[in-house]
Specification:
Layout lengths: L1 E2 L2 E2 L3 E4 L6 H31 L6 H29 L4 E3 H34 L4 H4 L2 H26 L9 E2 L6 H5 L7 H35 L3 H29 L8 H25 L2 H22 L2
Parallel strand pairs: 3-5
Antiparallel strand pairs: 1-2, 3-4
GO molecular function: G protein-coupled receptor activity; olfactory receptor activity
Main location: membrane
Keywords: Cell membrane, G-protein coupled receptor, Membrane, Olfaction, Receptor, Sensory transduction, Transducer, Transmembrane, Transmembrane helix
């Protein structure tokens, strides 16, 4: 259709990672396996937290939210990626592209804010343990979780609206694995400086601000841990934060590298690999990190497996 003498496309073509057919089939098998592990791992974490009363604490309430975000984020990108790896036609309708950008960008923003909230939770647990249950009460935890979901969603809605009001003219080839903000903005046949400014402002507000809050929280946490006299006490205090700190390093590191400076961003291939890491590897790793590095989760797994084994034995007994 015509609008302001510009041609607007109704469908985009995602160029993806490679055009080699054998490589596409191999990648399909790999990413399908990773996606299934992601869904299963995060579902089991949520189920475990639900079933074990010892995990009904603020930390695991936020971890449940994180698992839901991870599964949703992977689902917003990976199924489409799998279809395009096998399909001859790599097209994605305009509205589907806009929806994918909205959900992936929104869920990414939610995760950044949620990690900052989890850092605050760890700060209170280590620095003010006697008042932890008073400060991190159910009402506050619910409000913090809602704030995370709303802030990411509102930011994504604004970005999606700004991005897709740009005229793409006849350029409909997106050199990316998904409808990612920078990749779509590059298609515009008008000046996009205002969009780049919006990306920068959004990065500062929704990425750097939570990152700074995480940084400040861990400065206080480390300072408190160093004041603990016993080695065992310091080890236990650090252990309560180790899983979250690992996830923070992986999550913020890759995303800051991609988005914080659009004008000096990495190459297109690097952007694809970073986005792929964030869509396939991170959601798969998070349940593993929290399971392998957390004694409470490992204990809950052992208890659940023991109950399941006992139930199986009873059923097998004639």
């Amino acid at each position: 259709m015509e609008r302001d003498n510009q041609t607007w496309v109704s469908e985009f073509i995602l160029l993806g990672l490679t055009s080699d057919r054998d490589t596409q089939v191999s990648l399909f098998v790999l990413f399908l396996a990773m996606y299934l592990v992601t869904v299963l791992g995060n579902f089991l974490i949520v189920l475990l937290i639900r079933l074990d009363s010892r995990l009904h604490t603020p930390m695991y309430f936020f971890l449940t939210n994180l698992s839901l975000v991870d599964v949703s984020y992977a689902t917003s990108i990976v199924p489409q990626l799998l279809v395009h790896l096998l399909a001859e036609h790599k097209g994605i309708p305009f509205l589907s592209c806009a929806a994918q950008l909205f959900f992936s960008l929104g869920l990414g923003g939610i995760e950044f804010v949620l990690l900052a909230v989890m850092a605050y939770d760890r700060y209170v647990a280590v620095c003010d343990p006697l008042r932890y249950s008073v400060i991190m009460h159910g009402g506050l935890c619910t409000r913090l979780a809602i704030t995370s979901w709303l802030s990411g969603s509102i930011n994504s809605l604004l970005h999606t609206a700004i991005t897709f009001q740009l005229p793409m003219c006849t350029n409909r080839y997106i050199d990316h694995i998904s409808c990612e903000t920078l990749a779509v903005v590059r298609l515009a046949c008008v000046d996009t400086s205002s969009n780049e400014i919006a990306i920068m402002v959004s990065s500062i507000i929704l990425l750097m601000t939570p990152f700074l809050l995480v940084l400040l929280s861990y400065i206080q946490i480390i300072s408190t841990i160093l004041k603990i006299q016993s080695t065992e006490g310091r080890r236990k205090a650090f252990h309560t934060c180790a899983s979250h700190l690992t996830v923070v390093a992986l999550c913020y590191g890759t995303t800051i590298f991609t988005y914080i400076q659009p004008h000096s961003s990495p190459s297109v291939l690097q952007e694809k690999l970073i986005s792929l890491f964030y869509a396939t590897v991170m959601p798969m790793l998070n349940p593993m990190i929290y399971s392998l590095r957390n004694k409470e989760v490992k204990g809950a797994w052992q208890k659940l497996l023991g109950q399941f084994s006992g139930l199986t034995s009873k059923l097998a007994t004639p």
